[in-house]
């Protein structure tokens, strides 16, 4: 969206009759949809093949290969989503010193959320409790606590 030239070319291509007015996103999603349709097709072929026949062996091999391909695709999609989450988080979090590289191939965000920290002031005669929001970011290899910038 930040590149005007790219936006113009994209709009021109998407309006072209050859593209059938489909957006770029639909062309990116279409191959994944075709893979899942192939899986359904192979399941139906397997139902109709004679047990123990050469056709069943070949269809089973094709089905197993397709299952592995779908599994690999899903893992890669999850890995990319995880990397995008880390990039987004690294843009939001500001470290006082950059000794902690947030983005890593092996690191992924497991859970994150806001909590309320309670501070007890024991110096005054009456105990005074103050609250402040903190954020926990649980990664597969570490736990990061952060607070909103004041």
Automatic annotation (TrEMBL):
Gene3D superfamilies reported for this sequence: Dbl homology (DH) domain (1.20.900.10), Pleckstrin-homology domain (PH domain)/Phosphotyrosine-binding domain (PTB) (2.30.29.30)
Q: Can you name a GO cellular component term?
A: nucleus
| SUPFAM superfamilies named in the record | DBL homology domain (DH-domain) (SSF48065), PH domain-like (SSF50729)
PROSITE patterns associated with the record? DH_1 (PS00741), DH_2 (PS50010)
- MF annotations from Gene Ontology: guanyl-nucleotide exchange factor activity
- Lineage: superkingdom: Eukaryota
Pfam families from the entry? RhoGEF (PF00621)
Q: Which residue numbers delimit the DH domain?
A: 1-76
Q: Which processes are annotated in GO (biological process)?
A: intracellular signal transduction
Any idea what this protein is called?
Answer: ARHG5 factor
Source species, please? Answer: Bucco capensis (collared puffbird)
Identify the gene encoding this protein. Arhgef5
């Amino acid at each position: 969206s930040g590149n005007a030239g790219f936006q113009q070319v994209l709009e021109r291509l998407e309006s072209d009759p050859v593209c059938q007015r489909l957006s770029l996103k639909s062309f990116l999603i279409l191959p994944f949809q075709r893979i899942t349709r192939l899986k359904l097709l192979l399941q139906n072929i397997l139902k109709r093949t004679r047990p123990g026949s050469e056709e069943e062996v070949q269809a089973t091999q094709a089905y197993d290969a397709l299952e592995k391909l779908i599994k690999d695709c899903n893992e890669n999609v999850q890995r990319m989503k995880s990397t995008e989450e880390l990039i987004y988080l690294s843009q939001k979090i500001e470290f006082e010193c950059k000794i902690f590289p947030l983005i890593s191939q092996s690191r992924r965000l497991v859970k994150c959320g806001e909590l309320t920290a309670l501070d007890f002031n024991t110096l005054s005669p009456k105990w005074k409790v103050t609250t402040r929001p903190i954020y926990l970011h649980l990664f597969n290899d570490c736990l990061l606590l952060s607070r909103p910038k004041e």
